[in-house]
Design goal:
heterodimer, A: 381 residues, Formate dehydrogenase/DMSO reductase fold, B: 525 residues, 3 domains, two-stranded antiparallel ribbon, 23 helices, 68% helix, elongated
């Protein structure tokens, strides 16, 4: 059965905007999603690490709960920021994404169940703030593992959506949808690439927490900086093993894309490598000298560039995988001018409102609007 | 056929219903409950009511845990599920309404942020700022309903979009406003019903009584206006679609009944909470909640059933075939598949040649790509039950498959495929519930003959074509029944036995006299 015969035809409705705009929105929102995911998952892993490995039990406990309190916010942030790329992915790549989802329907559906359980677990831990019991650690561990499984399901689905040659055998063997994409050689390296990145960026989140505590509690902040900074460094170093393995598991023509065949892809890979090295150097200097500004501003700025280049590289890889079946020119485009400007206006207004909301709350550099009597009236229950 | 079909053993339709009903039950609470929070907070602060404020803080926690966690994930869940079960419809909707969804996403993002800041802000913010977050939450939550309602209503009544394909025509479709009003009332009612749950665990009896009465103010008036709004809603649904909910189609009619009864039950229970509000037990509040879930679920079932055979009205059938050939449909309309054949058209099918020995196997594949989005063999909407009920043998099934679009007031699309493929599907269906030709011909009393052979399309009423067209004279009627296609060319070519025909005619004539339309078709045609 020829894979190209199995690719579903596009539906008759034209693209409601130019291809490039939808692609841009896909990439930008994916990047935001992945940063939130990294904070959430990396944060959870590091919180568990702190709890179980910190030399000072008190310190480990404090880090654990400081991160745990953020998880019930970071998980919905990840989900909410994930909705937009999922939407634009379906607009452009629905033929591939729906099909691979159906081929592995049950694992894909179970993502919802796993997420729900993980989410309630994170809430449980955050509500038990300060209660340092085995149960709290256990719940946190289970929630974290469930989120890791969700990530694994995503890696399976995305790799499967890019390899239509695998569809028929899997689907016809089990149309019930109990399939994964375990025989895909890039699956594990790709998955690890994301997981390790999450730990690195999770480390940066601890560095941000160190920045926030720098004046209030300098000793704790310095411990956070060391812990988060080291986590960032170890994970980034590990990436220099995982990354090349991922690259070398790619089919030859796709690998060569990053090794000279495609100038853009090659340049982006070099940016990624150089950025990783630069971030390591800056972080290592910052940890030695206790320079919070370098760790909390320079390194994240470099990493933002790395994440952006990785996001584009990932997209180039997808389009290269799908090259035999998919071309941007296949779409008819009929821009919905009657509604697109409304979206853009609301999007801008939404970003502004969001920033106002955060600042009014005292986040992102705003001043808290606190009124002691009001707070007391409520707390007194 | 264009996409693979996920084979859900217990029924794809049941899974989607489960996810969707649980989601709407929470998401409507997320909207109405938002208004409840800010209005209650204002009231408590104006009256300097610390006890009410303290309860509201706990209620906020409950609200966020239910709506932000379960509501948000199950909302994504509907998307996951429809993509798995109706990928063609999802793809259509995404391409038609991506900017609607993108706008909804903006509102949703603000909504979630505001909900969390409102929750965490209880201990942190001054009253005015805290209420400000509450209002932002509610306004954005409502706006997300304003947007998604357009897309959901579009699926039921696509209106003039089918002709002009304009975004706003599809969005502000015939049921847009009644559906919005109806859902708004549901949202407000649910705000009070969920509040009963957190009120019921309150220990202070006086506070509990106040809370229960306050909840009743939200629930009872909202429930009271629902019938009127429902009536408006129904009036805006095209008559032929709504007819299927009142006709012999079992699910829609049954669920419409359940919806009305459960709505009345919720109303009565809500009134009963006022009898001894200070002593309401938690189990009673859960009973109200459960009844409301049942009512809401029944309503959604009716909406979905009424929409059948379409998933997007007048455009796409529930089995992902377009109702008419349109440019760019890839050959996946009923007419195109009927002329080319399923085995040639379908992408996700393994056996492409039909032989004398593989009939049932090919039939199973056809069943999967054409029927499994709604039916199973032996579970949810299991065809084995229908076949057993009607006692159809293979020949009869094959004949009946030729007239699916007439059954139950047109609740199903026509069978798409060649005659040989229809035969193969009949062979498969017989294999899941074997009925012998002997058993199929066994019924000799008129009522049973009617039930087994006619009742899926015909009803006992004067306006029914059967009573209009069939001669009253027993001999003439018996002759006419020998060749049904001569009565109406699209009738399935059923062969009733020599015993069955006169029995059926006699029974039909007793019905005519009993119901008083004996003279209507005197002489017949």
């Amino acid at each position: 059965m020829q894979a190209s015969n199995l690719i579903p035809v596009l539906d008759p409705n034209p693209l409601p905007a130019p291809y490039w705009l939808l692609k841009l929105l896909l990439l930008v929102t994916f990047m935001l999603h992945i940063v939130a995911m990294n904070f959430m998952l990396g944060g959870a892993v590091l919180a568990l690490t702190a709890k179980w490995s910190a030399q000072s039990k008190e310190h480990g406990k404090r880090v654990f709960f400081d991160v745990a309190k953020k998880l019930p916010v970071l998980l919905p942030a990840t989900i909410t920021l994930g909705i937009a790329p999922l939407l634009f992915l379906q607009v452009l790549y629905g033929q591939f994404f729906y099909t691979s989802s159906i081929v592995m329907a049950w694992p894909w559906f179970l993502v919802l169940v796993l997420l729900t359980v993980a989410y309630y677990g994170f809430y449980y831990v955050s509500f038990r703030s300060g209660h340092d019991s085995h149960r709290v650690g256990g719940v946190m561990l289970v929630s974290t593992l469930l989120v890791v499984l969700v990530g694994f399901a995503f890696s399976n689905n995305i790799t499967l959506s890019q390899t239509p040659v695998r569809w028929a055998a899997k689907y016809f063997a089990r149309p019930s949808g109990w399939n994964l994409n375990l025989t895909e050689p890039t699956l594990i390296p790709r998955f690890l690439h994301f997981m390790v990145a999450a730990i690195a960026v999770g480390g940066l989140m601890l560095v941000f927490m160190a920045l926030a505590n720098w004046k209030r509690d300098n000793e704790y902040a310095r411990q956070l900086l060391q812990f988060g900074g080291k986590a960032f460094m170890y994970a980034t170093m590990a990436q220099f093993v995982v990354g090349p393995v991922f690259l070398f598991t790619l089919p030859r023509d796709l690998r060569m894309m990053y090794m000279g065949d495609n100038p853009l892809a090659t340049a982006l890979l070099l940016v990624g490598i150089a950025g990783g090295i630069a971030a390591l150097v800056v972080m290592s200097g910052a940890l030695r000298s206790g320079n919070i500004r370098a760790a909390a501003f320079t390194v994240p700025a470099i990493i933002a560039v790395v994440i952006a280049s990785m996001t584009v590289m990932r997209d180039l890889l997808r389009d290269a995988y799908l090259q035999p079946y998919f071309h941007p020119g296949q779409f008819t485009v009929k821009t919905q001018w009657a509604v697109l400007p409304l979206f853009l206006a609301l999007f801008v207004a939404g970003v502004v409102l969001w920033l106002v909301m955060m600042r009014r709350y005292g986040l992102l550099g705003g001043r808290e609007k606190v009124s002691e009597p009001a707070a007391k009236a409520v707390v007194s229950d | 056929m264009n996409y693979p079909v996920w084979d859900v053993s217990f029924g794809a339709g049941l899974l989607i219903a489960l996810v969707a009903i649980l989601h709407v039950f929470v998401s409507h609470f997320a909207v109405g409950g938002g208004l409840f929070l800010v209005v209650t907070e204002r009231r408590a602060r104006r009256r300097n009511d610390a006890a009410l404020l303290a309860w509201l803080k706990k209620h906020t926690k409950f609200f966020v845990l239910v709506t932000v966690v379960f509501g948000a994930i199950s909302g994504v869940g509907i998307w996951f599920t429809i993509g798995l079960i109706s990928p063609t419809a999802t793809s259509d909707l995404i391409h038609i309404f991506v900017w609607g969804w993108a706008i909804e996403w903006v509102f949703f993002f603000i909504e979630i942020t505001a909900a969390l800041l409102y929750l965490y802000g209880w201990d942190k913010l001054d009253a005015k700022t805290h209420e400000w977050y509450g209002w932002i939450y509610f306004i954005n939550a409502y706006l997300s309903l304003v947007v998604i309602n357009g897309i959901v209503a579009f699926m039921l009544t696509s209106g003039s979009w089918v002709r002009n394909h304009e975004f706003w025509r599809g969005f502000f479709n015939p049921t847009y406003f009644p559906s919005l009003a109806f859902r708004t009332a549901i949202a407000l009612a649910l705000a009070g019903i969920y509040a009963l749950v957190t009120a019921s665990v309150e220990k202070d009896a006086a506070l509990k009584a106040r809370l229960v009465r306050w909840s009743a103010w939200w629930t009872i008036p909202s429930l009271a206006v629902l019938p009127a709004l429902g009536w408006w809603y129904i009036r805006r649904i095209p008559h032929d679609l709504w007819a299927s909910a009142r006709g012999p189609m079992p699910t829609a009619t049954a669920y419409a009944g359940h919806a009305v009864i459960l709505l009345a039950v919720v109303f009565v229970l809500a009134l009963l909470t006022l009898v001894r509000p200070g002593r309401m037990h938690v189990s009673f509040s859960l009973l109200v909640l459960l009844a409301a879930l049942g009512a809401m679920g029944s309503f959604e079932f009716v909406r979905e059933s009424v929409r059948k055979p379409f998933v997007i009205s007048n455009y796409l059938y529930a089995n992902s075939l377009y109702s008419a050939a349109i440019p760019g449909d890839g050959g996946f309309s009923v007419d195109e598949v009927s002329s080319a054949g399923v085995l040639k058209s379908a992408k996700w099918i393994r056996v492409r040649t039909l032989t004398a020995t593989n009939q049932a196997d090919v039939g199973r594949e056809i069943f999967r790509v054409e029927c499994a989005s709604c039916h199973t063999a032996d579970a949810y909407r299991g065809l084995n039950r229908y076949i057993a009920l009607r006692q159809w043998d293979q020949n009869k099934i094959q004949a009946m498959l030729g007239g699916l679009e007439f059954m139950h007031n047109g609740v199903m699309p026509a069978f798409a495929g060649t005659d040989a493929e229809r035969g193969a599907l009949a062979a498969y269906l017989t294999s899941i519930q074997p009925i012998s030709a002997q058993a199929a011909a066994a019924a000799t009393d008129g009522a049973t003959v009617f039930a087994q052979n006619c009742s899926m399309c015909h009803q006992v009423k004067a306006s029914d074509s059967l009573f209009q067209n069939l001669p009253v004279d027993p001999a003439a009627a018996g002759d006419a029944l020998k060749d049904l296609t001569s009565l109406f060319p699209l009738m399935p070519d059923l062969k009733l036995t020599d015993q069955q025909r006169p029995a059926l005619v006699a029974w039909l004539n007793t019905q005519r006299s009993a119901k008083g339309f004996g003279q209507a078709a005197q002489g017949g045609k």
